[in-house]
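Deviations from the work plan: none for this task. Representative record:
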Amino acid sequence: MTSGAGFHLMNGDFLSLLPRTGIPSLVQTEGQSAPLQGTTVFAFHCAEGILIAGDHRATAGNMIFSDKTEKILELDTHSVMAIAGAPATAFEMARVLQTSFEFYRRSQLQPMSLPAKLRALSRLLRENLPATLQGFGLVAPIFAGVDQNAPEARPGIFFYDPLGAQFEAAQFAGSGSGSASIKSILNHLEKWGVPRPEKMSLREAVVLANRLLITAADFDTATGGVHPESGLFATVKLLSVTGIRDIPGGEQTAFWKEAHR
Amino acid sequence: MTEEPFRWLEAIANRREYIRDQLSGGTPVFAVSRPEGIYLLGVGSGHSKVFEIYDRHGFTALGNPVDIEKIRQTAIEAAHLEGFNRSAADVTLKRLISFSLGPALKNSFEQIFSPPFILEGIFAELSGAPSEDHLVRIRYDGKYEFVPQGIAVAFTDPPREAEAVGWLKKTLADTDSPRELASTLLTAWKTLREGGAFDKVQPLTDLRPVLNERILEFALLDRRSSQKVRYRPLALAL
């Protein structure tokens, strides 16, 4: 049996035994969706900085684990990570980064540079290579940050492949099972939208983020937990040169109502 | 020498005398617990005296800058290790001082063939209410005490330190603005430094002549903030 990731499972081994006994396999197999990877997170430039958003659903195969998961994690005052992939590994990576960034800032009496933060995440992903290759520890995060040491710093969006390669996104980035449709829409809007996302006000950007997640949920069962009509909004944070601002549900409700009068 | 108790006691007494002599030029540092948080104040001339240790923890000290730095680094490492292995809520001064820094300072002081730590300091821990805050006065020989009533002063002369605490208790009010608080603390700073009496002292209004090119370090562990990190350096318009 060959898994979706190209791994060969032997007849009678533990991983092939799991699905036969009704327990979801840890490894993606033919005809199965990737386990513990269903999610949608994305980031795009708007007029006030970078908007980072994500849905609330955590899944394992076709099972919904939770519809109240926080996937947009503040690492320090000027960097945010949006997680997609195996939650246990992703949350642990965020915790390691939070501690190391704060430890560095307090002990060295200056913030860590943005390139060093990007390398730190890259290194963690690379160290996670064995779990990624085994098919159950894949993490593909998005990182947004500002270099506090640079006087003319501008917030940047970075995305990674699961092996640790880092890329800077000019306009937007997305990750997770529902990100393909969102990236298509953002690409369209950046080319022909009026206004383009990078020119949008915070209100317009927050409404767009929720609409994108609702659209993604229409095509991806692993994306969910965003229902503005029930008062359930995406996790949305704004990163600017002054720091990170959480956009709470109350503020999103006001934006949503204003846009849908 | 250590086989003879008298010689050991003499060495310890010499060590105290040496440390007090080394500390004699130091200027005081302060920590005050208030409804809005814990304020830390020190006056430096080239070296920092007020520091962030962890999410709800601060440190201020006088003494040899290298020794202050060693204690600061040790405290930061211990706090982050505890916070990572357990949780931020498990980082407490009770454990940090009682089980880590206090014994280390005492050991260092009593190892008579190695250089001692030359510092006097205050650790502060912010809680949900002023009555639950912790201010810990820690001394060069490892002695420490949890200071009641929310005012701690670290200076080189314990009786003068107690006088300053008494005056600050009478003079400070919960309604004081940060600038009024800083003025009162700087008045105590000036009085201790110049060896003046506290009985007729009034808080100063013009702070610039007091500082005289020195750098005022003033920080708040902010109780009102919803952020994880509560330490905030404050800039005062003098």
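Chain B is about 40% helix and 25% strand.
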